[in-house]
Design a protein that fits this description.
Enolase-like, domain 1, globular, Uridine Diphospho-n-acetylenolpyruvylglucosamine Reductase, domain 2, alpha+beta, five-stranded antiparallel beta sheet, 33% helix, 11 helices, 305 residues, five-stranded mixed beta sheet
Amino acid sequence: MKSFEYFSAKSLEEVIDLIKKHTQCKILAGGTDLLVKMKRGEITPKTIIDIKRLPELNKIKSNTDGILTIGSLVTFNDILDNPIFKQDYSILYQAAQVMGTAQIRNRATIGGNICNGSPAGDSIPPLICLGAQLQLINQENDRLIPIEKFYEGPQKTCLHPDEILSAIKIPLLRPETFGVYLKLGLRKSLEIAIISICVLISINKRLEFIEDIKISLGSVAPTPIRCKRAEDILRRKPIGNDLIERAALRVQKDINPISDLRSSAEYRYEMAYVLTKKALKFLVDKYIYRGENYGKENHKNSYKS
């Protein structure tokens, strides 16, 4: 690891000023990705700006407009410890459960998981389904961007060099909204996802069909993706096995996986189909048909290959 200049920022204003002055800097939040990459020599920043001690970025707030604001320094253990996520934003809670070990979750921040730019980030498919917007700030501007538009390629985002992610904003969910997050890895929680999927559905008042649906996958394309054409197959129609089959096949057509050390592209194609069907059947049976044939004993948030 090469030498570098280090600053421990004491305020958000100081961070923004330091980023402006040091154009080749890296932000240190939890450090679970940054420090590993530096040790391997994959990145060699000239300047490190430590933002871990900024209390204004470590808050979870819900305002009168129903917007949930999550500071970028909120850790995954913070998400697991706050009852609002388990009760109202369960897909993000489910993703936090299978994100690394307890020690990693105690350090890893949601902002770091987002800004790392990996298509395998555990928090990203749930945030896409939740319609999250990212608050990006610099000395001149404060802008909001949908998380769907944040990613431009592997390890590449639209975050400007002089910007910092300050918060994630999630709108109020519709009534009768339910979701599931599934992650496939070589090990239960220590592994980067071979593939992950999140499905969020809203059901009409008579529990007859899916009023709205969002489907998002990770590790199946250069960026996390949302499968809008598969959603269109299922939206506002009586749901049966035939539609679920069509939607799963549509998801297969919309992905573009690669082969790497963790998996072949062919295996990712197959598991995208399998996990899409599994997620949809679980949600439809549990929340629309209220059936017992696909009970909790058959459902887990993380699977071994």
